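can u do me a favor
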């Protein structure tokens, strides 16, 4: 048995996959704690894991249409420097919280680190003299095969992609610089920049397991051997979980509906987006289920549109004719797993990357940038995409084939194997 601490920070999609990983590790006989924000404590505990608190409100720092930190509604868009300043403040608070999370337990023997927490967790692993296994949900290492996931979807050619990829790593190093300096001082470590610590880890050939599927992103051929792609990690859910009765009744009352949701995106725009979605659904002559999410998406109850709160995508998506969403990594994978076509509406960060990947795979319509969802133009574009997604069988056939491939993968099992190897 190994005492494991998983650290994950951000929105639901940044955290929930690690509950599935943690549950598999617990079932394999390990003692597992997951450090994350208070909002996810019930999910962590329901999965049978110890909860440890990380500070900071992810809603206050989550990417929105304006960039890494969404301004309040009707506020002027924040400049790039201001966005970086806010993100750095979040990271600094997170660093102290991660140290507290380690110290609140006893005898941590292995750290499992998400994309957000890895640059800080490397310092903790050094101070504790324990191994750390990085488990990112998106590809972050430079490659010539595609541009960095947060830099747009246009390839700059092999050398251009790699150059911009290395630049992206330096931007992340700069973001974590002050937090890393404070954390190393607290831990009694000699000074070292985030870039230096990162390069040490790279030179040591420490394994990095990526939690997405090669169905969407084949492992780049120019990656170092320590970097692997193991398949998706799915959020834990109770074996006896069922859809709410209101959802079951709605599903049986008519043909399969279309799901519309934006997850942690578009805060404060729920009323506008809900009205736009309903108009588009009706123009496309399909029923719909709106998931409120952080945007507060909602509409008045009707026979053809239902609004729901938190419902596991694994239970809901297989009943849909198509899914409309922001294309976060987890939601994109959930739609693919369900074998249903997607209408991508990417907002920011890595979402355009996943939207383009789904479209290239033949399981999605052409992406509709979130900024284009305005007034009648947005209704027309969304309704047209809904018609394409639900009317042509090719996308559903491609999605069904992709779903069969995903079903054969065992991403969490690969983590268990890697942990057992490290423990030995």
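np, heres the sequence
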């Amino acid at each position: 048995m190994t005492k494991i601490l998983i650290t994950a920070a951000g929105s639901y999609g940044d955290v929930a996959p690690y509950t599935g990983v943690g549950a598999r590790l617990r079932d394999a006989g390990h003692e597992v704690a997951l450090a994350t924000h208070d909002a996810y404590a019930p999910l962590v505990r329901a999965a049978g894991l110890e909860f440890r608190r990380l500070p900071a409100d992810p809603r206050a720092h989550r990417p929105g249409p304006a960039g890494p930190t969404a301004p309040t509604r009707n506020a002027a868009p924040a400049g790039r420097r201001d966005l970086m300043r806010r993100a750095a403040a979040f990271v600094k608070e997170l660093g102290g919280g991660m140290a507290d999370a380690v110290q609140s337990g006893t005898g941590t023997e292995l750290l499992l680190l998400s994309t957000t927490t890895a640059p800080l967790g490397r310092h903790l692993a050094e101070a504790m003299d324990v191994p750390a296994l990085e488990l990112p949900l998106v590809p972050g290492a430079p490659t010539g095969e595609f541009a960095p996931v947060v830099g747009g979807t246009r390839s700059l050619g092999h050398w251009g992609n790699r150059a911009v990829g290395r630049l992206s790593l330096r931007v992340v190093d700069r973001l974590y610089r002050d937090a890393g300096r404070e954390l190393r001082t607290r831990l009694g470590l000699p000074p070292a920049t985030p870039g230096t610590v990162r390069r040490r880890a790279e030179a040591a050939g420490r394994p990095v397991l990526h939690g997405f599927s090669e169905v969407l992103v084949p492992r780049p051929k120019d990656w170092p051997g320590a970097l692997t792609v193991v398949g998706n990690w799915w959020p834990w859910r109770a074996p006896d979980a069922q859809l709410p009765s209101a959802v079951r009744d709605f599903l049986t009352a008519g043909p399969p509906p279309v799901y519309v949701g934006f997850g942690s995106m578009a805060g404060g725009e729920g009323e506008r987006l809900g009205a736009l979605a309903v108009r588009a659904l009706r123009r496309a002559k399909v029923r719909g289920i709106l998931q409120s999410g952080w945007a507060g998406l909602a509409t008045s109850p009707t026979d053809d549109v239902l609004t729901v709160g938190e419902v596991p995508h694994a239970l809901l998506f297989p009943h849909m004719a198509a899914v409309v969403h922001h294309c976060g990594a987890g939601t994109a994978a959930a739609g693919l797993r369900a074998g249903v076509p997607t209408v991508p509406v990417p907002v920011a960060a890595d979402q355009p990357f996943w939207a383009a990947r789904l479209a290239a795979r033949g399981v999605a319509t052409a992406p509709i940038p979130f900024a284009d969802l305005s007034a009648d133009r947005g209704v027309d574009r969304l309704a047209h995409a809904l018609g394409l997604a639900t009317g042509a069988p090719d996308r559903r056939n491609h999605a069904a084939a992709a779903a069969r491939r995903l079903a054969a993968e065992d991403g969490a099992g690969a983590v268990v194997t890697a942990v057992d190897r490290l423990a030995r």
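The chain has a mean pLDDT of 89. hope that helps!!
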